[in-house]
């Protein structure tokens, strides 16, 4: 089914009142984003292996040593001690799916708080997502890591605690996938594997050293 057919089908459903126009608009934006990803892949064939912005070749992401690290393993298994992140990673492993908002949060933690290379996250998503897309997967990972195409003049470092408070106010999502975090069950990390505040400051310092201050 072509993107044009999907676009027309969604638009017609909205016109008939079968879905809200706001929902149709949100879906159409995702179609545009997907087409943009494929457009960029056409012009940047190395999208899955090389930073779009060359200055990020100097970014101190962990690569070979990070692949077998305890931090990367904890991220993949959903035992980072950050409930929203762990919920997303466990959902991914169990179902092959994850909400887009949570994808951004887990990606931010990996690349900015843990300073692990986005390519390792991209590879894991490629292996586990049922909707893994040859263009969208690396495109979105480069976006969240800050080294790809980004319409905004700054880089976002998602605070997973704040994100959970906003988008999972009742903790229903977290309770579903990480029930032991709500009951302080033995075996769940009592503290996150990384200090979120300190690691954020360290990431900001690196961005500044590259001539890209995400706070401006």
Task: Describe the structure in your own words.
The protein has 216 residues and is an all-alpha fold. The chain folds into 2 domains: 3-43; 54-212, DNA Cyclobutane Dipyrimidine Photolyase, subunit A, domain 3, CATH 1.10.579.10. The protein is 60% helix and 0% strand. It is built from 12 helices and no strands. It has helices at residues 3-15, 21-43, 64-67, 70-77, 83-95, 100-113, 118-128, 136-145, 160-167, 172-177, 179-183, 196-209. Helix 5 crosses helix 6 (100-113). The longest helix has 23 residues, at 21-43. The protein is globular and about 50 Å long. The model has no long low-confidence stretch (mean pLDDT 91). It holds the Pfam family FAD_binding_7. FAD binds at residues 27, 131-133. Belongs to the DNA photolyase family. GO terms for molecular function: deoxyribodipyrimidine photo-lyase activity; DNA binding; FAD binding. The record marks 61, 118, 141 as: Electron transfer via tryptophanyl radical.
Quick recap of the structure?
The chain has 216 residues and is an all-alpha fold. The protein is built from twelve helices and no strands. The longest helix has 23 residues.
Helix content percent band = 55-70%
Label the overall shape.
globular
What is the CATH level 1 assignment of the largest domain? Mainly Alpha
Instruction: Output the CATH topology of the largest domain.
Output: DNA Cyclobutane Dipyrimidine Photolyase, subunit A, domain 3
Instruction: Assign the CATH superfamily of the largest domain.
Output: DNA Cyclobutane Dipyrimidine Photolyase, subunit A, domain 3
> Which residues sit in consecutive blocks of at least 5 with pLDDT less than 50?
none
Instruction: Determine the number of helices (DSSP H or I, runs of at least 4 residues).
Output: 12
Work out the radius of gyration.
18 Å
Distance between the termini: 42 Å
Structural class by sheet pairing and helices? mainly alpha
């Amino acid at each position: 089914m072509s993107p044009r057919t999907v676009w027309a089908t969604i638009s017609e459903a909205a016109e008939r009142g079968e879905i809200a126009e706001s929902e149709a608009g949100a879906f159409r934006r995702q179609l545009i984003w997907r087409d943009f990803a494929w457009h960029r892949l056409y012009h940047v064939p190395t999208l899955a292996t090389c930073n779009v912005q060359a200055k990020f070749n100097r970014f101190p992401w962990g690569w070979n040593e990070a692949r077998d690290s305890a931090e990367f393993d904890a991220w993949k298994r959903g035992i980072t001690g950050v409930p929203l992140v762990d919920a997303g990673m466990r959902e991914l492993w169990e179902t092959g799916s994850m909400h887009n908002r949570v994808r951004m949060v887990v990606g931010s933690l990996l690349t900015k708080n843990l300073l692990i290379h986005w390519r390792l996250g991209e590879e894991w998503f490629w292996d586990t997502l049922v909707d893994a897309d040859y263009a969208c997967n690396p495109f979105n990972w480069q976006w969240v890591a800050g080294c790809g195409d980004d319409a905004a003049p700054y880089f976002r470092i998602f605070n997973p605690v704040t994100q959970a408070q906003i988008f999972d106010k009742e903790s229903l999502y977290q309770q579903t996938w990480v029930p032991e975090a709500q009951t302080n069950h033995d075996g769940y990390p009592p503290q996150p594997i990384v200090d979120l505040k300190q690691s954020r400051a360290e990431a900001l310092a690196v961005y500044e050293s590259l001539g890209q201050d995400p706070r401006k």
